[in-house]
Specification:
- It is built from 24 helices and 11 strands.
- It is of the alpha+beta class.
- The chain has 3 domains: 422 residues, Up-down Bundle (Multidrug efflux transporter AcrB transmembrane fold), CATH 1.20.1640.10; 133 residues, no CATH class; 137 residues, no CATH class.
- Helix 4 runs antiparallel to helix 6, helix 9 runs antiparallel to helix 10 and helix 20 crosses helix 23.
């Protein structure tokens, strides 16, 4: 440790003068190096796949991929048809549905189109099974025929709340898609084609409302959110940082140099991310803006020190060198702790947050090197003057605050500590809940369409079960089919269940139809051979695009069991799946003992999984930061003291969140890891100045606290305002994950400044007694000398 301290001291004494002497070489070499790194931006691409949020090791995601490999992929587009007269069974509406059904085959990668217009209605004629569309030509049908079609259609349990609402006022056209494995480019292609079809039917059928949703439109919305945030938030943050730096420094060339450094830092971080193959997602698209915001702090500390020295009469280049010397250790510590905090996001279960952490970490390191090398080199060549020594109101207020803290320490210490603990109690009200649908606000057409879908046609939350019969061809076994049917009946009795799709319903319908439509035979066939014959006859009668591969596997061993719900919370989804698994264990053979899968369940679980993993990352980051702080300050006591004002703000912020919102999703599960390296910045600067005052100037704790307020209080205030403003701009995002993350980070950082201004100095005054005896002895010796004189 002593060796490392000696090296750091030597670098502090040497670096500032070296940069000033070699300023032109640094500029000439740094700019091309940054340009080479930034060239990687051309490799950046937007990943609009919803499933990018799930790690490959996620067991539920693996289960979903296994189900889709057995049957079919979940990708689809859904057109919703809502006639303004509230009746689907009219000639015009049915014609529109039929046209949409035909147009669905023109959507790229379409593999199946289902609607009430091509629903394959079965009936028996003697020993023959007739399979045909319920309505073949709506133009020639009479009103009576449409009324008959209504009665028959609304009696088909397999399509209610899927292809048509129970009241017959809304219908849907499902287009299933066989998307390529890498469908980054396919998603916009499909979304564009579907949107063009939608606009065409809207123009030709003004009496009907049309909506467009589906999993592909979800992916497209994620891509749109990434583009919006990337294109709007980074420029807004840059503009905001320019204003804040300008007000803080009041130096044109200082602001110019600072903006150059933070812009180059952002380009370097993005470029290095591009070289590493990191994609832009709805989560990582905020990375450029975060780099801009975090890069401000280093620039402000160095430039404010330089300008302060110049106003005291120190020559410009000497002031630059001295500013680097004074701030190097603190800037290095704040940069490395911020990097550690963001790199701890690599513990996240969700890859986009790992990408965000790596991107911002690279940008922050670039900002550090630019701040201690390029920034002072630029200031050494730019014709910068400090300007008049105007009254610094912030510094005056910081000095007054120091007086209050020193004078009222006995009251402030317990008051701030109790305030922090009481605010943290709100965490008990927090409920872990997530629904990726609500990530998007109503400005997204997909969100409006999906809300209409949930309210009028069917639910969005789905759980699926690949239920095995235990043998090849076993789906025709009456015992297996009976278990399926009993499971379906159990599920239909559960609250919020609006549709259950099971292969046993198909076999029950076939058994009835092959007995002349007699409802007494609406049940499971008596023998396996009979069920197999019905299945074969049915499959041979189905037209192209209506096979059963999405319901049963090729080996006829396993069938797909699908349950659709009204809007459900994450907790409710977990509870119903646990009950279903319990029912299977109690009533089904061992090969059917399985838990559900599906995107809704994975999203419901990802927050729990991510919080568990991020707790490891946060504790690991906190442990490393504590070691670094202890080593840098050369005091185990100060290292421990630094933990208190850094741990309380996240706890307080989540307590406040629990009181005003109560819902924590995937975005907020990474906030502690993100902010733990940021909030320590002010603590580092305050403690470093405090420690300098104690060691170099032999001040008492009260004097050292006042010195820290005077020397770094203004910069702490300015950088906190910059950080809060930058993160607050994320709340303007139309993507809830970014807006919630930004709001929570802003709250944490604001509370951190409060703790650093009130609790930290109180702790130091109460606990730090280093050298007091030595100071007293020196004072006594000086008094004796004065007496002798």
């Amino acid at each position: 440790m002593a060796r490392a301290t000696w090296i750091m001291t030597r670098i502090e004494d040497f670096l500032g003068d070296w940069v000033v002497r070699h300023r032109w070489w640094i500029i000439l070499l740094t700019v091309p190096a940054i340009g080479l790194a930034a060239w990687g931006i051309r490799h950046l691409h937007i990943n609009n796949d919803t499933r990018v949020f799930f790690g490959e090791q996620n067991p539920q995601y693996q289960a979903l991929k296994a189900l889709e490999h057995t049957f079919s992929n979940e990708q689809n587009v859904l057109f919703i048809v809502a006639p303004k007269d509230g009746n689907v069974f009219t000639r015009q509406t049915w014609t529109a549905i039929a046209e949409l059904t035909d147009a669905g085959w023109q959507v790229p990668y379409s593999s199946r189109v289902n609607s009430v217009a091509n629903y394959q209605y079965t009936r028996g004629e003697g020993d023959d099974l007739i399979v045909e569309a319920l309505v073949s030509d709506p133009e020639t049908m009479s009103d009576d025929q449409f009324e008959t079609a209504r009665k028959v259609t609304l009696a088909q349990q397999t399509i209610l709340n899927r292809l048509i609402s129970p009241s017959g006022h809304v219908a849907g056209v499902f287009v299933s898609l066989a998307m390529p494995p890498e469908h980054r480019r396919a998603t916009p292609e499909v979304a564009k084609a579907a949107t063009e079809i939608l606009e065409d039917v809207r123009r030709r059928y003004p009496q009907i409302d049309f909506y467009l949703t589906g999993s592909v439109m979800v992916d497209q919305a994620f891509g749109e959110a990434s583009k919006r945030d990337f294109a709007t938030l980074a420029p807004a943050m840059f503009f905001t940082m320019a204003i804040i730096i300008g007000l803080a420094l009041r130096s044109f060339f200082g602001v110019l140099a600072a903006l150059t450094v933070i812009a180059l830092s952002m380009l370097t971080g993005l470029g290095l991310a591009g070289w590493m193959g990191i994609p832009l997602t709805a989560a990582s698209a905020s990375g450029p803006g975060l780099i801009l915001t975090l890069a401000v702090a280093d620039c402000v500390h160095i430039l404010s020190t330089m300008l302060h020295l110049m106003r005291e009469g120190v020559p410009r280049r000497k002031a630059i060198a001295r500013a680097v010397q004074i701030n190097l250790k603190a800037v290095f510590l704040t940069s490395i702790t911020t990097v550690i905090g963001f790199l701890s996001l690599n513990f996240s279960e969700s890859p986009p947050f790992r990408d965000l952490g790596n991107m911002v970490g690279l940008g922050v390191m670039a900002a550090f090197f630019c701040s201690v090398l390029l920034l002072p080199a630029l200031m050494a060549v730019l014709p910068c003057s400090a300007g008049p020594d105007q009254k610094n109101h912030i510094r005056i207020h910081c000095d007054k605050l120091a007086s209050v803290v020193i004078r009222r320490v006995n009251a402030l210490f317990p008051l701030t500590l109790v305030l922090g603990l009481v605010a943290s109690l709100g965490m008990v009200r927090i409920e872990l809940n997530d629904n990726f649908l609500t990530y998007f606000d109503e400005t997204f057409a997909f969100r409006r369409a999906t809300d209409f879908l949930i309210e009028n046609l069917g639910g969005w939350d789905i759980i699926e079960y690949p239920l095995s019969s235990g043998e090849s061809g076993g789906v025709a076994d009456p015992n297996y089919l009976t278990t399926l049917d009993e499971f379906a009946q159990w599920y239909r009795r559960q609250p919020k269940v609006i549709h259950v799709g099971t292969f046993s319903d198909t076999m029950k319908r076939l058994n009835r139809d092959m007995h002349g439509g007699d409802e007494a035979y609406h049940g499971i066939p008596d023998s396996r051979e009979l069920a197999a014959q019905y299945l074969l006859l049915y499959e041979l009668s189905l037209p192209f695009g209506h096979d059963l591969n999405n319901q049963i596997d090729v080996d006829r061993d396993t069938s797909r069991f699908t349950v659709m719900f009204e809007s459900m919370s994450a907790q409710e989804l977990h509870e119903i799946d646990d009950k279903a698994s319990e029912w299977l264990r109690a009533n089904a053979p061992p090969h059917m003992h399985i838990s559900g899968t599906g995107l809704s369940l994975i999203w419901a679980d990802i927050t729990h999984r991510n919080i568990r993993s991020m707790l490891k990352g946060s504790f690991g980051a906190l442990f490393l930061i504590s070691i670094i702080m202890t080593a840098a300050l050369r005091s185990f006591r100060l290292g421990l003291i630094s933990l208190v004002p850094n741990l309380l703000p996240p706890a307080m912020a989540f307590g406040v969140w629990g009181l005003i919102n109560g819902q924590v999703g995937l975005a907020l599960s990474v906030v502690v890891a993100m902010t733990i390296g940021i909030v320590v910045d002010d603590t580092v600067h305050f403690l470093s100045k405090y420690d300098r005052a104690r060691r170099e100037h032999e001040m008492t704790p009260a004097q050292a606290v006042r010195y820290a307020f005077q020397t770094v209080g203004t910069a702490m205030w300015v950088t906190t305002v910059a950080l809060v403003a930058g993160f607050s701009l994320l709340t303007l995002s139309r993507y809830r994950m970014s807006s919630e993350m930004g709001l929570m980070c802003a709250i944490v950082i604001a509370l951190a400044l409060l703790m650093d201004f009130l609790l930290l100095p109180s702790l130091l005054l109460k606990i730090d007694r280093r050298g007091d005896k030595l100071a007293a002895a020196k004072k006594s010796q000086q008094d004796r000398q004065d007496g002798c004189l």
